[in-house]
Design goal:
Pathway: Protein modification; protein glycosylation. By secondary structure, the protein is mainly α. It has a domain at about 1-50. It has 18 helices and 18 strands. It has a 3-stranded antiparallel beta sheet with strand order 7-10-11, with no helix packed on it. A 3-stranded antiparallel beta sheet has the order 12-13-14, with no helix packed on it. Strand 10 and strand 11 form a beta hairpin. Helix 12 (about 345-355) runs parallel beside helix 14 (about 420-430) and helix 14 (about 420-430) runs parallel beside helix 16 (about 505-520). The structure holds 2-acetamido-2-deoxy-beta-D-glucopyranose (5 copies). The site of one 2-acetamido-2-deoxy-beta-D-glucopyranose has 6 residues, from loops.
């Protein structure tokens, strides 16, 4: 059979087909052709334009002299007096020549059948429709507010009041090719004044959502939309002010007004690992784009503390959830986790290596990651026992006892589902095939949890039964399910559900996205579609989509209290966090886009799914 695959670049016909009518004709033509030649496949279905790999308008080397913000009519954070100024700044590696190992599967050599392509487009359109509906509601009912309340249709302030959803959604608008909405949003963002926000700010959230959102949108415009860089610099200067402490560790829960008032600040005694160690990607990118080394310098000081203490903790290789930032001492606390308050500290190690293009000074990130994952495999992944004897690994938490023994609690959090994607990325980046197998089995545990939860959605936190020895490489243990031995469970496979909410979180689809792009197995698209349908159908409200109070309520198909289609209406919570638009729907969408679009070899995603240009 003739292979009619044509590269879009060599298709003059493409530019002429731009009206809806000829699009329809083309569709019919392809459809008939397909009937006639079932093997026929081609790529002239409309697909978004790809970015050139290194557009001239984004700096390859950091600008010199550096660009600084010149705010008009807004508060200037550069004017805050620094009590503990830095004398000499750590410099970004000058030029990066090293080519990183290839991350994505080689899709180019494949030729998906036409029906598959059409299905992909249809699914992607459904996901975009959901996004579009939510965005429309936000615009109408909660414009410039932090969050839309999806049931009552009002809004609330959660992260400083600068429009968290607005900034967090910018890049998704671009990626989904909603350019008018994007431009309208940029105009609104240009008016934000990052002056002391309401009360205490969570600087981790401020960084990953706002700063990440601004940098990503700027990168997507090929560094042409200068208003976005301007805002990123203004916000970067604000965040930088939270690092003005005696040991230069950041104040992670920060009252901006105190800094404005000139008060001397100290970092917290009771800090949280993820909030300490999740600035590196955003600050590195900001220094790359501006040439201003203060940001990169600030994050380097933090990473040096992590590196020095990595082997001195109660589980050498891992850092505990609780850390004292004042001393700074990361060795005392006994709780270790892949879930809340720890997660992105690990995720940012390979990703920062990537954004530094593996430069000599980035090898530290690589070795820290390898040391950490070695310990994770040993202590934080376990093989659960399920009625169907699924070959999966679940990410969990562990506590070190007085006698030094390490006890896993076998709790599984939706948040910790990022682990599969991280292992998959790391496997390719550092070329370790065994990590891809861990990635697969960890991702499968999240897929399993969706598939086997009573209503097809994984709860926020639950425990699972574990083999007596959970070491993933221990083949001498019999993990076969035995109903006589294993005690009663709340639901088959779910021992106890600790927190039954679903908060529209992205981590499971995030890992499915990474696995799809890295292995090229179309099975992950089917998994994603099933997940999307469950989530959309159960979270949809009059205006947008809402969190669910209890995803484990038994399904009632009899119609009692159910909706027309026989699905029980699960009780919803009047909440739609900005990550629904920034992350969840973006990852769903990208699973069904041309794999060259936002390729993992050209972009690195921050922990809020904001892609930065490599
Ligand atoms: C910031 O400080 C500079 C000099 O230190 C001064 O010229 C400028 O007016 C100040 N800007 C604001 C907004 O206070
Ligand atoms: C920590 O230990 C690992 C081996 O377990 C080693 O490769 C790494 O270099 C050590 N890190 C430091 C900072 O000494
Ligand atoms: C691959 O990863 C495993 C587990 O972390 C480790 O033991 C092994 O040394 C790694 N192999 C290479 C070639 O780095
Ligand atoms: C494997 O499991 C057996 C039985 O629980 C245990 O005796 C052994 O120490 C474990 N080996 C490893 C490497 O964890
Ligand atoms: C593992 O346990 C199951 C059920 O307890 C049993 O049927 C099976 O024979 C065991 N397998 C091995 C290899 O011991």
């Amino acid at each position: 059979m003739r292979n009619l695959k044509v590269s879009p670049r060599h298709l003059p016909i493409r530019s002429r087909i731009n009206t809806r009518f000829s699009g329809l004709l083309l569709f019919i033509f392809i459809y008939l052709l397909h009937l006639y030649h079932p093997q026929f496949s081609l790529e002239i279905l409309p697909s978004p334009l790809r970015f050139p790999s290194s557009p001239a308008s984004c700096p390859i080397i950091p600008p010199y002299p550096s660009i600084t913000s010149s705010p008009n009519n807004v508060f200037n954070w550069r004017n805050i007096t620094q009590h503990y100024p830095v004398e000499a700044f750590e410099q970004l590696p000058a030029v990066h020549t090293k080519t990183l190992a290839r991350i994505q599967h080689d899709f180019d050599s494949e030729n998906p059948p036409l029906y598959h392509e059409l299905m992909r487009k249809r699914r992607q359109a459904a996901i975009k429709a959901t996004f579009s509906r939510c965005w429309g509601a936000y615009k109408e009912l909660a414009w410039k507010q932090d969050e839309l309340l999806p049931i009552s249709g009002s809004s609330k302030t959660t992260f400083g009041g600068w429009g968290a959803t607005l900034v967090d959604s910018l890049d998704t608008l671009w990626i989904m090719n909603m350019k008018d909405e994007f431009n309208e949003a940029v105009a609104a963002v240009a008016e934000i004044d990052f002056v002391d926000g309401d009360g205490e700010l969570n600087m981790f959230e401020t960084t990953i959502r706002y700063l990440g959102g601004l940098l990503s949108a700027y990168d997507l415009t090929e560094c042409k939309e200068k208003r976005l860089l301007q805002k990123a610099m203004e916000l970067g200067d604000m965040i930088y002010a939270s690092f003005d402490t005696p040991n230069r560790m950041p104040v992670t829960r920060w009252v901006a007004a105190m800094a404005v008032g000139g008060e001397v600040q100290e970092a917290a005694q009771q800090g949280v690992l993820a909030e300490l160690a999740s600035f590196s990607l955003e600050f590195t990118r900001l220094s790359q784009l501006t040439g201003d080394m203060r940001y990169y310098d600030a994050t380097t000081r933090v990473i040096d503390v992590l590196a020095r203490q990595q082997n001195e903790t109660r589980i050498p290789g891992l850092w505990p959830v609780g850390v004292n930032l004042q001393t700074p001492d990361l060795t005392k606390d006994t709780l270790f986790s892949l879930g809340t308050m720890a997660d992105s500290a690990y995720e940012y190690l390979p990703k920062t290596y990537q954004i530094l293009h593996g430069a000599a000074s980035a090898t530290q990130y690589k070795s820290m990651y390898e040391t950490a994952t070695e310990a994770m495999i040993q202590h934080l992944l376990f093989r659960p026992i399920t009625p169907d004897n699924a070959d999966i690994l679940a990410p969990t938490s562990a506590r070190v006892q007085r006698d030094g023994s390490i006890v896993r609690d076998h709790s599984v959090q939706h948040l910790s589902c990022f682990t599969g994607g991280m292992f998959a990325l790391g496997a390719k980046l550092f070329q370790n095939a065994s990590h891809l197998e861990y990635a697969r089995r960890v991702t499968e545990s999240c897929i399993w949890s969706y598939d086997n939860a009573p209503n097809g959605i994984m709860p926020e936190i639950f425990t699972m039964l574990a083999c007596s020895s959970a070491s993933p490489s221990n083949n001498s243990v019999n993990c076969t399910f035995n109903p006589l031995v294993w005690p009663a469970q709340q639901f088959p496979g779910f021992e106890t559900v600790i927190d039954a909410r679903y908060m529209l979180r992205p981590e499971a689809i995030e890992s499915v996205f990474y696995m799809y792009r890295i292995t090229g197995e179309s099975r992950y698209q089917d998994v994603a579609w099933k997940m999307f349908q469950q989530v959309e159908r159960r979270t949809r409200t009059e205006f947008a989509n809402a969190a669910i109070r209890d995803v484990t309520r038994k399904m009632d198909r009899s119609g009692n209290g159910g909706t027309e289609d026989g699905w029980q209406d699960l009780e919803k919570v009047d909440s739609m966090e900005s990550f629904w638009l920034a992350e969840t729907l973006k990852y769903f969408y990208l699973v069904f886009s041309d794999p060259g679009w936002m390729s993992l070899d050209e972009w690195v995603f921050n922990t809020e799914a904001h892609p930065f240009r490599l």
